[in-house]
Structures are given as C-alpha cells and as structure tokens.
Design brief:
The chain is α+β, with helices and mostly antiparallel strands and 181 residues long. The protein contains 5 helices and 4 strands, in the order αααββαββα. Strand 3 and strand 4 form a beta hairpin.
C-alpha cells in the first residue's frame, strides 16, 4: 500500500517548521547561557560547522552533483541546490571581487526567521542565523575549500535582504601532499 505524494510534502513542511521552532528555542537558550552576543555567535558558528562537515556527505549522495570546477560554480551549487534541498529556498549569487574569490548569497526569504519579527534591542549584535555560516564553512572545508563565511546583511537588523558573504581563501592542501614536504 503506498502513500499519496502530497503526504510527503506535508511531513516535510511540518519537519521544517519544527526545525525552525527548535532553532529559535536553541538561540533563546544560548542567549540565556551567554551574556555577550559574540559568544552566542561563535557557539552558533561552531554548531553549524559540525553540522556542515557531516551534511556534505548527505548532500553529495542525494544530489549526485559533479565536481565543481570554479568558485563561481561552487557558490551556484550552494545557492541553487543545497539551499533548495535543505531550506526550501534558493539564493541569488553575485561575485563581489575582481579576483573571483568573493561572493554574496542573497536570500529574499530566510526560513530560519519565519517566526521571528525582530531582535531585542539588547541583542543588536547577535547574528541569529550564524549557524548557516558555520554549515557552509564546514561543508566547504570537507571538499578541500577553505573559506570565510559571514553575514553581511540581515533582515532581522533592518536590512532589505539577508546576505551571506563567502570569501574563498585557498584550496586546502591534501594531507598526503603535506606529509611529502
């Protein structure tokens, strides 16, 4: 006996809403545990990094994507495939440097803030969705791409869009290569 396909989408939506609510509770608890926003931001980034280094395996297995040949292609893959697969949204990409190693992911809609209207005034420097930066950084590191990932704009802080900046630093060297030196 098979289930109708609409049921699967309904479960996905419920799961996403549960994740968003749970994430909000997590951030609220971290705000209670840490006095400084910077400490909360670091904690969220570390958690995201741990998720990213594991999530990349699932992404590669489920998406069946081929190896990206450029930073631009990698960023497009994150924006169009990974964000759609895990967050249900896509992001637009723009290259922000002549060297071709700095990109912006622009989200018109950020599902992690569906139930958040604004940050409290005393939490003005909190990067509520900093987990995403850690996830991207961790996933990129696992495919041997060192990157710095930060929030450039945030709707929760009054900006028009949510913008995540990715700066590719260099290709991480293989451990085998390092041992030979």
């Amino acid at each position: 006996m098979s289930r109708p396909p609409a049921r699967k989408q309904e479960n996905h939506k419920i799961s996403r809403e549960l994740f968003v609510l749970t994430y909000g509770a997590l951030v609220a608890q971290l705000c209670k545990d840490y006095e400084k926003d910077e400490d909360v931001n670091i904690c969220l980034d570390r958690m995201g990094y741990g998720i990213g280094i594991r999530l990349i395996d699932d992404f590669l297995a489920r998406s069946a994507v081929k190896k990206c040949r450029s930073y631009s292609e990698t960023t497009d893959m994150i924006a169009q495939v990974a964000f759609k697969m895990y967050l249900g949204v896509t992001a637009s990409v723009s290259c922000t440097s002549a060297a071709g190693n700095e990109f912006s992911l622009i989200l018109d809609k950020n599902p992690l803030v569906d139930f958040v209207e604004e940050l409290p005034a005393e939490r003005a420097s909190l990067c509520y969705c900093n987990l995403l930066c850690g996830v991207i950084r961790g996933a990129l590191e696992m495919v041997h791409l060192a990157a710095e990932v930060t929030f450039l704009q945030d709707r929760l802080k009054g900006d028009a869009v949510t913008e995540i900046g990715i700066t590719f630093l260099r290709k991480a060297e293989d451990r085998k290569h390092k041992r030979n030196k």
